[in-house]
Amino acid sequence: MIRAARPDEIALLPQVENAADERYARIGFRQVITAPPASLASLELGRRLGRLWVATSPLGRVVGFALMKLPGGTAWLDQLSVLERWQGRGLGSALIDRTAEYARALGHDTLYLSTYLGVPWNAPFYERRGFSVLPRGCWPHTFRLQFMIENRQGHPSWRRTIMSRAIIADRTYPS
Ligand SMILES: CC(C)(COP(=O)(O)OP(=O)(O)OC[C@H]1O[C@@H](n2cnc3c(N)ncnc32)[C@H](O)[C@@H]1OP(=O)(O)O)[C@@H](O)C(=O)NCCC(=O)NCCS
């Protein structure tokens, strides 16, 4: 189930993010694991603004989340994580869809994110969900800034890219 995050769940989310990222260790991508998770302050702000959703297990346990931000007025999927044990059941896709729905309701026609090229559960996963790589020449200033921040946090820039998905109402994507 996907629903808005509750205040008492904020503290759990950095642990969910760190645990989900363990998947990168198996492909030798330790930089992702050492990069800091989303801060409690940014998660709480996202929650208050209605831009934070959790995925829950049938017993109501939080097993994933998505955080959307609006850098430079664009709809940006800032964080998406699902605990390893719960991956591969459609929760990641459902969190993306919820984020896209919300962005659309705010009047956006595009959802953006940054991710890794060549990592099976990153760019290829998003491509199968209607996203495509945005050529660097098309990046607005805000994204260049966003990229610099991520690089400073330890995300290696050489495999990193920005992707976008049209979220106009009458299009559907494979789930
Ligand atoms: C990216 C992520 C959120 C996807 O979440 P998810 O709940 O596994 O997403 P879904 O179940 O909707 O789709 C997973 C895909 O992996 C496939 N899959 C199959 N078995 C799987 C398994 N055991 N574990 C993971 N994925 C599996 C699914 O079939 C699906 O493939 P498809 O794209 O061909 O449909 C999750 O992998 C994750 O948290 N990764 C670590 C953090 C991360 O990379 N975040 C994104 C940063 S940009």
Tally the helices: what do you get? Answer: 6
Fourth CATH level, the homologous superfamily: Gcn5-related N-acetyltransferase (GNAT)
User: How does the overall form come out from the CA principal axes?
Assistant: globular
Main sheet: strands, sense, barrel: 7 strands, mixed
Order of helices and strands: EHHHEEEHEHEHE
Describe the strand arrangement of the main beta sheet, using strand numbers.
1-2-3-4-5-7-6
The rounded distance between the terminal residues' Cα atoms is 15 Å
The gyration radius over C-alpha positions equals 15 Å
Number of strands: 7
Main structural class: alpha+beta
Describe the structure in your own words:
By secondary structure, the chain is α+β, with helices and mostly antiparallel strands. The protein has one domain (2-166): Aminopeptidase, CATH 3.40.630.30. It is 34% helix and 23% strand. The chain is built from 6 helices and 7 strands; from the N terminus they run βαααβββαβαβαβ. It has helices at 13-25, 30-34, 40-48, 91-105, 123-127, 141-152; strands at residues 2-4, 52-56, 62-69, 75-82, 110-116, 132-133, 160-166. A 7-stranded mixed sheet has the order 1-2-3-4-5-7-6. It is globular and about 45 Å long. The model has no long low-confidence stretch (mean pLDDT 92). The chain binds coenzyme A.
Short description:
The protein has about 180 residues and is of the alpha+beta class.
